[in-house]
Amino acid sequence: MSETHLYPVSEETAKAAWVDNAKYLEMYEKSVSDPEGFWAEHGKRIDWMKPFTQVKDVTFTVPGVSIKWFHDGTLNASVNCLDRHLETRGDQTAIIWEGDDPADDAHITYRDLYIRTCKLANALRAKGVKKGDRVCIYMPMIPEAAVAMLACARIGAIHSVVFGGFSPDSLAGRIQDSECCAVITADEGLRGGRKVPLKANTDKALETCPSVSTVLVVRRTGGDVAMKDGRDVWYHEAVEGQPETCEPEEMNAEDPLFILYTSGSTGKPKGVLHSTGGYMVYTSMTHQYVFDYKDGEVYWCTADVGWVTGHSYIVYGPLANGAVTLMFEGVPNYPTTSRFWEVCDKHKVSIFYTAPTAIRALMRDGEEPVKKTSRASLRLLGSVGEPINPEAWEWYHRVVGEHRCPIVDTWWQTETGGILITPLPGATDLKPGSATRPFFGVKPLIVDSEGGPLEGACEGNLCIAESWPGQMRTVYGDHARFEQTYFSTYKGLYFTGDGCRRDADGYYWITGRVDDVINVSGHRMGTAEVESALVAHSKVAEAAVVGYPHDIKGQGIYAYVTLVAGEEPTEELRKELVQWVRKEIGPIASPDVIQWAPGLPKTRSGKIMRRILRKIAENDFGALGDTSTLADPGVVDDLIDNRPAT
Ligand code: 6R9
Fold first, then answer.
1. What is the pLDDT of residue 487?
2. Fewest CB atoms within 10 Å of the CB: 85, 538, 551, 627?
3. Phi/psi zone of residue 445: left (φ > 0), alpha (ψ -120 to 50 degrees), beta?
4. Is 194 annotated as a binding residue?
5. Helix ranges restricted to H, 54-103
6. 225: annotated binding-site residue?
7. Residue 577, CA distances (Å) to 167, 173, 346, 644, 645 in order
């Protein structure tokens, strides 16, 4: 990886920014030497009903991991995103909605958003939804998705947003795990001109979800859907006639705000639980400093609200800051591959935040679709979701940003709530491919495989040594799993699951996951989930799934499949299995490669040697390492000989 390219902060950018390098160093130093003092000051950036007097009460020791911030304060997240802006910016746009069809768009002011949220909050209360209840949101990227989140927050209900691309089974699993009492969905979603049957999927999922007694359905496409008597209500009918104000629930800082399911290295997805006070402080603060957000600017994060990036940097962070946040229903290549840049021109976007996979896909179509647009409004670019390769970084910088826009490569996770390692545009000289330096209050620690801390330039496993306010608090319903997953690998440290290198300048370079999680187009996927979907097929005896380098997706899904005796490996069956996984989990989990494996390399104790399968998938046969401990070394040769072209 070349480190020769350095993009220094321009004087102009430094001067105009919230923070220049001197200020960054000063604030960072204060944040780690006196976290209590630092966060006591910055905790005031949001509105409290009852101000906190306690700042931090944290232990990372297993058993007994406990994380509390501002824990005697009370607040309401929706009040912070709405009510507090009404006087100063009630008529300012809060959300610019850009539909899938370029002819569809809408501007929603803070006052509109407030009214819509209150009406829905009242409708939910009327349905008996109360503080602490879980509500599932399974929606397309329409303003009602944000309204639904805020309405839950207003009445103290815990939302659990499930990405609209997930299958009925995946949806059901998530609803069951947190025993949601209601689902908010739409008739159909619309992406790239194609319809997504959200209500039909919900109906299918709810066959196995007895906890759900209410379903609110937004009419998005007008498509024909079944409505179940006594359970299903049209959203527009439910909110009709509801009062335009709604008393917000007074929440403790540590009361849960939301659950968001994410893949781990084993078993079913974990319900990552975030609480209210610390999360609001941390997301609003990072949104302001990382994107150097100034009043009135149009800010666009292209994520879906089904992922944490949508929660923190489309909805909560920007709205807490009174920003203009753009919400996009569509996809980067519809109707054409100029769409992103046309939307930037149409809405005068200043700050644009997307994923490396989108950049790589657009790169493939060359510069012309970008260059035929103006992009004059852009001043800052962002990247998130996976490591950005230096080639993609350079292209983003040169072609999209015309060398004018700094790029913030922001490293963080569903679990971290907000950005932890990132450049600040006015402070940090950039190196393509590096997430650069820690945000305020964040203490990264690189450890070797025994947990020994490494100093200076080094490479190892990335841990975080101290808590920050946006950190997840538990795995919903399974605190032991929380402790086990994040705090037991390295004593007293939060383990991220990522590998990382630190260079001589103290810059961090994330090298990717070191566990059995793969990152496909910025989406996290547990290989175990894909494996269990495959073995659920009657013709599959065994399956092992690994990631392999993929030009566009970052990592692709490579599945080794052993069929039950007597089944023939045919092209038809291959296609059937791909479809099967799509149906079981969702399109994002479609295997890119299926290799028929008469046998899998196993140790004598029966453990699949994933290291070897990874190497074969990577086409790296020279580095297989020691295969002598295998029960049957011959299977490796067979897999190498029959590796399909990728
Ligand atoms: C926000 C989000 C988290 C995992 C994380 C890491 C990878 C995210 C990255 C990055 C390198 C970046 N990741 N941002 N790797 N550079 N800027 O993506 O959350 O879906 O939970 O994924 O994504 O591997 O551990 P999530």
1. 98
2. 538
3. beta
4. yes
5. 77-78, 84-89
6. no
7. 15, 21, 42, 16, 18
Distance between CA atoms of residues 436 and 419, nearest Å: 12
Is 535 annotated among the ligand-binding residues? Answer: yes
Atom 4 of ligand 1, nearest CA residue: 413
Distance, in Å, from the CA atom of 562 to the CA atom of 559, rounded to the nearest integer, reads 10
Residue 516 lies in a domain: no
* Structure token pair of residue 188: 């159909």
Q: What contacts 240, CB < 8 A, 6 or more positions away? A: none
Task: Give the Å distance between the CA of 418 and the centre of ligand 1.
Answer: 11
Q: Which atom of ligand 1 has the smallest separation from the CA of 415?
A: 21
> How far is 190 from 330, CA to CA, in rounded Å?
7
Asked whether the beta carbons of 98 and 327 are under 8 A apart, the reply is yes
Query: Which pLDDT does position 627 carry in this prediction?
Result: 79
Given ligand 1 and candidates 386, 422, 498, which is best to mutate, with the most ligand atoms within 8 Å of its CB?
Answer: 386
According to DSSP, residue 407 is labeled: E
Region of residue 69 (left: phi > 0; alpha: psi -120 to 50; beta: else)? beta
Domain range holding 277? 34-52+69-331
Residue 166 lies in a domain: yes
Among candidate residues 331, 348, 378, the one where a domain is terminated? 331
CA of 414 to the centre of ligand 1 (A): 8
| Overall domain count for the chain | 2
Q: Is 410 annotated as a binding residue?
A: yes
Distance CA 637, CA 541 (A): 21
Structural element, H or E, at residue 238: helix 235-239
Distance, CA 279 to ligand 1 centroid (Å)? 18
Please give the pLDDT value at position 4: 59
Q: Which residues of the chain have pLDDT under 70?
A: 1-4
Distance CA 460, CA 620 (A): 22
Give the residue from 277, 299, 331 where a domain finishes: 331
Is 398 assigned to a binding site?
no
* Residue 231, both tokens: 């359970």
469 within domain boundaries: no
Spell out which residues line ligand 1, taking CB within 6 angstroms. 262, 307-309, 383-387, 409-414, 435, 496-498, 510, 512-513, 519, 524
Per-residue pLDDT tens over the stretch 399-409:
999 999 999 99
Beta-carbon contacts of 229 under 8 Å, excluding residues fewer than 6 positions away, are: none
What residue owns the CA closest to ligand 1's atom 8? 385
Q: Tell me the sheet residues that pair with 445.
A: 463
- Residue 455 is assigned to a structural domain of this protein: no
Strands (E) in 241-379, as ranges, are 251-252, 256-262, 270-275, 298-301, 324-328, 349-354
What predicted TM-score, i.e. pTM, was given to this entire model? Answer: 0.95
Burial 240-278, CB ≥16 within 10 A → b, else e: eebeeebebbebbbbbbbbbbbbbbebebbbbbbbbbbb
Query: Where do we find the tokens 């907000």?
Result: 418
Residue pair 580/586 in contact by the 8 Å Cβ criterion: no
Selection from 176, 227, 173 nearest residue 199 by Cα: 227
Q: Give 260's strand partners.
A: 272
Testing ligand 1's pocket by substitution, the residue of 519, 520, 521, 523 carrying the most ligand atoms inside 8 A of its CB is 519
Q: What is the CATH number of the domain that holds 303?
A: 3.40.50.12780
